[in-house]
Amino acid sequence: MKIIAAFEKTKELSYTSHLDVQRTLQRTFRRADLPLAFSKGFNPHPKLSFATALATGYTSAGEWIEVELDREITPEDFTERVNGALPNGMRFHSAFIADENFGTLSKMLIAARYIVTLYPDAAVTAEALRAALDGLLSSDEVIVEKKTKSGIRPANIRPEILEAEAISASDGTAVVAVAGTLNAAGGLRAETFARALFERLGTSGRFTAHRTALCFAGSDRLPRLR
């Protein structure tokens, strides 16, 4: 059987890498005495996979994972056992049993939603934030320097930005909700979006990113973009 489950990653573990999250979950599943299914061969490992990785430094309300088990347990039992063995900073809050034709999370993934909080070096008003976002969304091109396998290259991220909305600008912060494409081939990174927005605002600074949702196509049991 295959369990599809969602977990949150909070500030305590925001700088834990994706590889370390993977290792943490494998150890947690063993401590929780789950009936894990293992791969064959000389180095068997638990059959689990993520919809996508979460960048180091980000937090998230909903990362999705699929776990194969050797025998049936209920989603409620899965969640209770795992949460009892997890470290602070992670918690599973949703789980269901996938049917045989469910497919894979990574192939169904199409987008992600973020709350991006800017800490600009210069004060930003609500009007300036809305104007910068309007400029981004009305442009045909939003060029940023992007890291690729062949090095740093200019890239147009405008097609990756699906929605963006100003939430607030006060007390030295500017908060934006943004939805961007995300699939196996890549997609919008909160980091590049923040850099493009800083450029539009005419300042620099730092940012934090919180992934509020992953969005999928092909199943009504998973979060959808609309």
Could you give a quick summary of the protein structure above?
By secondary structure, the chain is α+β, with helices and mostly antiparallel strands. Helix content is 24%, strand content 39%.
Strand proportion, as a percent range, falls in 35-45%
What does the largest sheet look like? 9 strands, mixed
Number of strands: 11
CATH architecture of the largest domain: 2-Layer Sandwich
Query: Whole-number radius of gyration?
Result: 19 Å
* Oligomer class: single chain
**Morphology:** elongated
Uncertain runs are: none
**Mean pLDDT, as a whole number?**
94
Task: Kindly describe this structure.
The protein is built from five helices and eleven strands, in the order βαββαβαβαβββββαβ. It folds into two domains: 2-102, Alpha-Beta Plaits, CATH 3.30.70; 109-216, Alpha-Beta Plaits, CATH 3.30.70.3190. With 226 residues, the protein is of the alpha+beta class. It has helices at residues 18-31, 75-85, 105-108, 126-138, 190-201; strands at residues 2-9, 48-50, 59-68, 90-98, 109-120, 143-148, 151-156, 161-170, 173-183, 186-187, 205-216. The chain is elongated. The two termini are 29 Å apart. 29% of the residues are buried. The mean pLDDT is 94. Strands 1, 2, 3, 4, 5, 8, 9, 10 and 11 form a nine-stranded mixed sheet that branches.
